Amino acid sequence: MRLKRLLSFGRRRSSEAEVVSPKNTTLEEDFVNTVTPNRPTWKCFSYEEVFQATNGFHKDNLAGKGGYAEVYRGTLDDGRVIAVKRLMRASTDEQKEKEFLQELGTVGHVRHPNVSAFLGFCIEKELHLVFQFSSLGSVASLLHDESLPPMGWKLRYKISVGTAKGLNYLHSGCQRRIIHRDIKTSNVLLTADFEPQISDFGLAKWLPSEWTHRAVAPIEGTFGYLAPEYFMHGIVDEKTDVFAFGVFLLETVSGRRPVDGNHQSLLSWAKPHLRDGTIHMLIDPRLRGDYDIEELKRVAFAASLCIRSNASRRPSMSEVLELMLNGEVFKDSWDMSEEEEEEELWGFDDLECDSPFLTSTINSLSMSSSQCS
After folding, report:
1. pLDDT tens digits for 163-216?
2. Taking Cα atoms as reference points, which of 18, 83, 16, 77 lies closest to residue 52?
3. Contacts of 333 (CB under 8 A, 6+ apart)
4. Residues 6 or more apart in contact with residue 237 via CB below 8 angstroms
5. Is the peptide bond before 218 cis (omega within 30 degrees of 0)?
6. Distances from the Cα of 117 to the Cαs of 12, 110, 111, 139, 225, in angstroms?
7. One of 60, 145, 182, 193 is an active-site residue; which one?
8. Euclidean distance between CA atoms 206 and 78, whole angstroms
9. Nearest CA to 105 among 38, 208, 14, 201?
10. CB–CB of 170/140 below 8 Å?
């Protein structure tokens, strides 16, 4: 019934549909026809349009495949290159519809240079979301492909700042607070001019303004990027994304994956260097020393705050941006007590992985060392 209402609404506008907003606290349950202040627009694509654009969802146009969706490259009749996301994962039609509406209700409200541009949807025959295609692929694909030349420092810094801007927008610039829940290098795409854009809102959650956090189950995401409070207790708020962004920064600077082939976490490797001030050891050796030391200092300090175990001691994304862009970093204001410092010795390497809860949780997560790019 919900999809029929949505399709009817799209047909009334024939070419483009105004954004449909969710109720304040029941995004997953239903939609109501309210328009956002910025009046962004969707197009309600026909199945024929997306089918022809992707050449019948031909395997040669398969751009990526995740746990619950396939993404195909396509070209519209007007020449625009698009990415068509086809949902697959849910065990029942009702669950698939719920997940589709949840993601649609999120991406339909965002408009920012550092967030993937949403163009529309198609609900004929199957469920599809249509985005502007990012021609250069993901940050992960450029960062970790050994057949490519190493990404230069200026580009790494640009990507880091741009991603921070996009995430700050999701947390505080949207009509409602959006928690992405899966910030990682393979979910940040690059435009033709190397502008980073946050993508894949399949796990994203609304957080009503009166809520401090929400508890979710099951735990989903990518091992290596998960904040302790989320991994252990399912607690989600903006600081969940902040932690993942700290890992993102360390990965971008070092060129190392969040979990390597020996299952060593990037955090366990990086924390001693952050703590001892030997931040030059964090730099990707392929850069051969070609980097801006002042920018590195700011990025490393921001990362060290983002990955704090205590969520209340992490900065907001607006503060992260200020730390990364401001030439003067006031470290004293972020000092911790000795007791808090001891708590920061916590790490994923300390987890008892033979615990039934942790074992089942880890098994349900995608491993960053084999992430799809």
Report:
1. 999 999 999 998 889 999 999 999 999 999 999 999 999 899 887 676 666 677
2. 77
3. none
4. 179, 207, 212, 213, 214, 311
5. yes
6. 23, 8, 7, 17, 24
7. 182
8. 34
9. 201
10. no
- DSSP lists the bridge partners of residue 105 as none
Q: One-letter amino acid identity for 336?
A: M
Beta bridge partners of 259: 265
Alpha carbon distance 61, 354 (integer Å): 41
Q: Which domains does the chain have, with CATH numbers?
A: 2-132 (3.30.200.20), 139-370 (1.10.510.10)
292 is catalytic: no
Please tell me the pTM assigned to this model.
0.83
What DSSP line would sit under 219-286, residue for residue? --SEETS--HHHHHH-EESHHHHHHHHHHHHHHHHH---SB-TT--BHHHHHHHHHHHT-GGGGS-GG
Biggest CA pair distance of the chain: 63
